[in-house]
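cron nightly-structures :: item 1 of 1
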Amino acid sequence: MGSVIFQKEGRIKMKQAVPIALMLFMIIIAGNVSAETTIIELPVYRSAGQFWLDKDGNLQGFRLKVLEELNKVLKKDAIEFRYRITEWGNIPIKRCIKGILDGDYDAYFGLIYSEKREKKGLRYSKVEIYSIPTVVWMNKDNMFEYAGLESLRGKNIGIVLGYPYLHDIRNPDFIVRRPENDETNVKMLADGMTDAAIDNIVRTGTVIAAMGFSDKITYAAKPFKVSKFHIAYNKNVPEHVGNKTDAALAKLHQSGVIKKILDDNVYDPLSKQH
């Protein structure tokens, strides 16, 4: 009897052992799957003062520092944002946007919200990465008081091609020039070819300093707007990735990490120039 009971117990244990082994196997497999990091590929776009690829092929800028902090928080969620460096180096913004819409890249890290681009298919993060004032730049020899949009009526305004400012302006009284890059935009303003330029304080401020025009160009005290920089996703990026990333960005804001990066790399240096 004892042997029979043992055998029964043995059979029971063997029967239990099979599903237990299967369960362990499934847990191991599930663990391996969850351990696989979801890589979100980003295009490399030169945004003066914020992010760029230098001549030696190294990524630079304070936006990279923000991304590194974000990846640290997202590590527990097995999500990583990663720039893909190509033979083209710094890619023009319009090509970046097209690449994301076409699925060549997964997202753009640091894009100002645009309803027009959203309608084309971009999905923006609910939490911004950071906010930076966009200002009206002017030549010190041709200064005027900027008190709002009406102050720009009848003036030649330089806005780099691909930047979203004044997308909704269809009034012919607003004369908008669209140079290809920041350097041309600044040069046009310095040479008196335009009356004003609109761009965020970091990007154009950095270009002005690099070109040696700090004593010739200034900006209005009243901001044009506060530009919020978001992550813009391809619509096929899983929604949970966006949700986890929004939570991580919120955590970085609450902890003051992003504010410190902006203070150290943006506002403190610019306050010495203006």
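cron nightly-structures :: done
Confidence is low (pLDDT under 50) at residues 1-18, 20-34.
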